[in-house]
Write a structure and sequence with these properties.
Layout lengths: L5 H12 L7 H16 L5 H5 L2 H11 L6 H16 L4 E12 L10 E3 L2 E15 L6 E10 L10 H6 L6 H9 L7 E6 L6 H9 L3 E4 L23 H7 L4 E7 L8 E14 L13 E11 L8 E3 L1
Parallel strand pairs: 1-5, 5-6
Antiparallel strand pairs: 1-3, 2-3, 3-4, 7-8, 8-9, 9-10
Helix pairs in contact: 1-2, 2-4, 7-8
């Protein structure tokens, strides 16, 4: 559906949020208006998107109503996105955690530390978007979880940490919230380095997901002689990835970011099949380990004074 057309925006809002039970039809109508306005101008704030103070005040009252929960508003959209994802044989699920910074809003209560400083306050939102990998069309948000960071107690041991709920578990919870992959479908879950967690991989395998993650841990791996590159006997994933010969390459333009100017890099890609053996005294992981493609994307800096791009 082309959301650049005003009539399509309203149809989309009714389709996604018309089934929300708000306790009063007027509240549902208000929700549809808010959704339509934000869909028409996704980057705008509520006052800018709704244009008039009366509409903005109505939206604030709706969102501040204790009778309406976040889950009530979003559940129909998640269900509709799941249904659309089942219409094709392949779906890509792109996930990331965003930090909402409310450090300057001193009156807001119930916040928690974000980032690397205990003085910065806000909350985090883990979002999983579904898209069609062939057409690149965004289908919608298939699940989402806001959460507050819980600081580790002083002097906590590794054993104690493993017994409590941890922030990293939001990745495996998101897979469980979406549910098992439908039969005869391929769903590829794509995550950043925060998803380099073995229990997340295992949850994906248990529920039928393929997954691609950006490596954070330099794990010990096994690679068969048939799959190993010539004269390569590396045992660690990152070391192996960087030692692999390039199988493809192309130029990539990197946009300017903070103090880093826009730059072009020459991107080299490589891959090899490897196995990460499972070693868990509690038997939580599959005994056959995790199989995948260990690879590296290395971008060479084309000009003096710029840094190379590396993605393992």
């Amino acid at each position: 559906m082309d959301l650049t057309e005003p009539e399509n925006v309203e149809k989309w809002a009714v389709k996604m949020f018309g089934a929300v039970e708000c306790g009063d039809p007027r509240r549902t109508d208000r929700l549809i208006k808010v959704a339509s306005a934000l869909a028409s101008n996704p980057s705008a704030s509520l006052p800018c998107a709704l244009e008039t103070w009366g509409e903005t005040l109505g939206a604030y009252r709706l969102l501040d109503n204790p009778a309406i929960s976040y889950e009530q508003i979003m559940s129909p959209h998640w269900s509709q996105t799941y249904l659309e994802a089942t219409q094709g044989s392949r779906t890509r699920l792109v996930a990331d955690t965003t930090e909402m910074d409310f450090s300057t809003h001193k009156a807001v209560k119930g916040l928690a530390p974000i980032g690397n400083s205990q003085e910065d306050l806000g909350f985090s939102v883990h979002t999983v978007l579904a898209m069609n990998p062939q057409t690149q069309q965004l289908l919608g948000c298939i699940t989402q979880e806001p959460f507050l960071r819980k600081l580790a107690p002083k002097g906590e041991t590794k054993a104690q940490r493993k017994k409590r709920e941890r922030e990293s578990q939001v990745w495996e919870r998101s897979v469980k919230q979406i549910g098992r992959v439908p039969q005869n479908h391929q769903w590829m879950y794509v995550g950043d380095s925060g998803s380099d967690i073995y229990t997340f991989w295992q949850t994906c395998e248990d529920l039928g997901y393929d997954f691609a993650v950006r490596v954070a841990q330099d794990r010990v791996i096994e690679i068969s002689p048939d799959d190993a590159p010539e004269d390569c006997d590396e045992k660690y994933l990152k070391t192996l990835a960087r030692a692999l010969p390039a199988t493809a390459a192309h130029f990539l333009s990197i946009p300017a970011h903070e103090h880093q100017p826009k730059r072009d890099v020459f991107l080299q890609m490589s891959c090899a099949k490897s196995t990460r053996s499972a070693t868990s005294p509690r038997g939580l992981l599959a005994q056959n380990g995790a199989h995948g493609l260990g690879g590296s994307c290395l971008g060479n800096a084309p000009t003096r004074g710029t840094r190379a791009l590396r993605m393992d």
